[in-house]
Amino acid sequence: QLDRGCALHTAARDGLSSVSSQDVPAERPRAVFHTSESDPAKHTEQHEGRLYNIPLEEVKAVFPHGLPHRFQQQIQTFNEARVMVRKPALELLAYLKGSNFAHPAVRYVIYGERGTGKTMTLCHVVHYCSRQGWLVLHIPDAHLWVKNCKELLQSSYNKDRLDQPLQASVWLKNFKASNERFLQEIKTQKKYMWGKRESTEEGRPLREVVEQGLARVRSASDAVGVVLREIKQQSHRGSFRLLVAVDGVNALWGRTTLRKEDKSPVSPEELTLVHNLRKMVRNDWSGGAIVTTLSQTGSLFKPSSAYTPQELLGKEGFDALDPFVPIPVPNYSPREFESCYGYYLERKWLQHEKAHTEDGKAELQFLSGSNPRQLDRLAGPL
Amino acid sequence: PCHDTARALGDSPASLVPCRIMPVRWSRYNPSYLEPEVKKESYQKPLEELTEEEREQMELKAVRPIKAAPPTLSSSVFSDPMISKFTNMMMKSGNKVLARSLMSQTLETIKRKQLEKYHKAPENEKVTIECNPYVIFHQALKNCQPIIGLSNITKGGKTYQVPVPLTDNRKRFLAMKWLITECREHKHRRTMMPEKLSQELLLAFNNEGPVIKKKHVLHKMAEANRAYAHFRWW
């Protein structure tokens, strides 16, 4: 009965907005669990549990990296990108809207059990900030920087540290794709020397630093460091707002599986990328916000039942990130589950004839435990 | 020895247990044991709606022992005995977890391919595209089943390939076996099993592909050896 109540209640409100959306006239009006409001700034509690559409060109521009792999497959199959509006994301957006940017940046840590939607919440916030015109520094998965690195070079800037050219160049390429106009506007504030012959003068656009990093892969990690430093120093001026979005921030304060040539283990602070990112996540700058996610899935040497900030960050990480605003992400509420199930039915993702029945729905809810990832995995073969 | 087996099989009197060596693969249960009933619907029927036979069955269940339910028997609405059989045939060295995940990835791959085709097709062709992976699986298996098989019969020192009718179980087994061997042996080493299997199943659904060809070859051989059909004595 709750759903029918919702249908009548929201259909009236959405009647006007659905008429103005560009639906094909032959299609039935989109059902209860959709909303035609594709600007995250206008999402409120009324939109909770409903899915909003991100146009595919925007997806390519805003998320060159950062979306979970299964979600990317889903975008390809359904030919549309629909993200659910959930309470943790709405909470975060409210904090961001009400925050004072003259004060030091506030750190938000999104935590929760496995597969509850932390990365998707982060992507929702990133979409909001890029729509608002912020400069978004999105690191899709910090764990990729502390494991499985084929090449480790000794850094030319600091003899003790190690460079990761491949990871740095991949990140620079994606960063350039998403923030073209900022790279043109922000100018360097001092001269940087790349080796003996190449240098970037003062006052040149940051784009040249990025291109230098892409062209000379050996100095890519240093280019990343320069970019982060410049952006941090200039953010308090107020010409742009900065969002630092890091997924899997517990990688920065754990252990790595990398080894130096003499087989001694590498600790995270010996990596240039991690060192610079740690400086970025400190709250000694103003004019933006830092939104991070904890992740056990890619983490190293952490038990699979760990999900709280204390367990995943360890003492060092917790002290470095303290104080922060914790944002827990729970499993689907009954309403959100109905919404997700209805979406799968509508997109013909649930093909099994029993999946359309009440028994099938009850079984899906029980087997998945209302966990978004489990529901997705279960609904795949059905 | 037959008294020992009688005692092991639920303490029944020796007269009921035939005195023979039980093969390992056949059931070791006493014939009085009944099969477990897994379907939810049969337990939800109220007493009045039951027919005479069903009432008798219920009374019998109160006195007879029941066999243990095997782990593959599930009361889920989504379980399919054909899919379970296929998964068991794909399994290697008892790794059911891997076999089941491969099967679910296969079904998902089939669904994705068909849905992508469906969304790109014009309106009038959308009806012809089948997106349900289970329908595709069953139809593909049905298309791969041979109607007639060959069996080796030795007569007068020479072995002849004699055309012989096949039971339903044997047809199903051959269809599944051919599909799996085709995917394992005749494809590139680096392709994943879900990808290979989904391709084969989609080809078999449209009556194309190497497995259908193998079935036709078998039929032709049986047709060619028609003359030896009288060698069969069963």
TrEMBL record, chain A:
Signal peptide: none
KW Transit peptide (keyword) present: yes
GO cellular component: mitochondrial small ribosomal subunit
Gene Ontology molecular function terms on file: structural constituent of ribosome
Residues forming coiled coils: none
Region (Disordered): 13-46
Main location: mitochondrion
One Pfam match: DAP3
Places the protein is found: Mitochondrion
Keyword Mitochondrion tagged: yes
The entry's keywords: Mitochondrion, Ribonucleoprotein, Ribosomal protein, Transit peptide
Biological process according to GO: apoptotic process
Biased composition (Basic and acidic residues): 25-46
Family of this protein: Belongs to the mitochondrion-specific ribosomal protein mS29 family.
Protein name, per record: Small ribosomal subunit protein mS29
Organism: Certhia familiaris
Gene (UniProt): Dap3
Automatic annotation (TrEMBL), chain B:
Keyword annotations: Mitochondrion, Ribonucleoprotein, Ribosomal protein, Transit peptide
GO biological process, one term: translation
Domain called Small ribosomal subunit protein uS7: residue spans: 69-226
Pfam families from the UniProt entry: Ribosomal_S7
Subcellular location: Mitochondrion
Family named by the database record: Belongs to the universal ribosomal protein uS7 family.
Entry protein name: Small ribosomal subunit protein uS7m
Originating species: Certhia familiaris (Eurasian treecreeper)
Gene: Mrps7
